[in-house]
Write a structure and sequence with these properties.
Elements lengths: L7 H9 L7 E4 L2 E4 L5 H18 L4 E4 L15 E4 L16 E8 L3 H14 L3 E6 L5 E8 L2 E8 L4 E2 L9 E2 L6
Parallel strand pairs: 5-6
Antiparallel strand pairs: 1-2, 3-4, 4-5, 6-7, 7-8, 9-10
């Protein structure tokens, strides 16, 4: 059986023709329909985007659920990406790994898919990735990409402090909204 991987250009043409409301991602040449966003997921993304904007908005662009270009076969849409500031706000092209300081994924029912995306982020050399487990409230911090994996993993519990390594102080106190 032949398997065909599509490239970014083909994916973008396909995504333009997708029905309204259908969100697609290209991961390692395969097209995935993204899960619908529930209220818990939306709440965590809103909390993180507001908090990261307040703490680091003068030093980074906080991009929410927008595409990033990892390689010719991958265009994920992380829940949040902190980008290096650019005057044009990336109007000419999607941000690439060299532009990305941090990606954040929020997982409720999508943990397997988000862990697959973490591997792609590490392969692309993105310096730091965070994975929020919506069920437990734990924040998993991944750093030091090497050989397609992150070498360091830290679990952050509610009430603990964390800061993106590339941005340093101030730290945020991890207090995810809970039902």
């Amino acid at each position: 059986m032949l398997r065909y991987r599509i490239r970014v250009e083909e994916f973008l043409a396909l995504a333009e023709r997708a029905p309204e409301g259908v969100r697609l991602e290209l991961l390692d040449g395969e097209v995935y329909e993204m899960a619908p966003i529930g209220s818990g997921h939306a709440s965590l993304v809103t909390y993180l985007s507001k908090t990261l904007e307040r703490l680091y908005g003068d030093r980074a662009i906080v991009s929410v659920q927008n595409p990033i270009l990892l390689n010719p076969y991958s265009v994920p849409q992380p829940d949040i990406a902190l980008l290096k500031p650019r005057e044009d706000f990336y109007v000419q092209s999607f941000p690439e790994p060299k532009d990305i300081l941090l990606v954040v994924e929020v997982a409720y029912t999508t943990k397997d898919a988000d862990e697959r995306k973490l591997a792609l982020y590490a392969q692309a050399g993105i310096p730091e990735s965070w994975l929020v487990d919506g069920e437990t409230g734990l924040l998993e911090v991944y750093r030091e990409p090497r050989g397609g994996l992150y070498r360091l993993k830290r679990l952050v519990e509610p009430g603990e402090e964390v800061a993106p390594e590339g941005l340093g102080a101030p730290s945020l106190v991890w207090r995810p909204p809970r039902p």
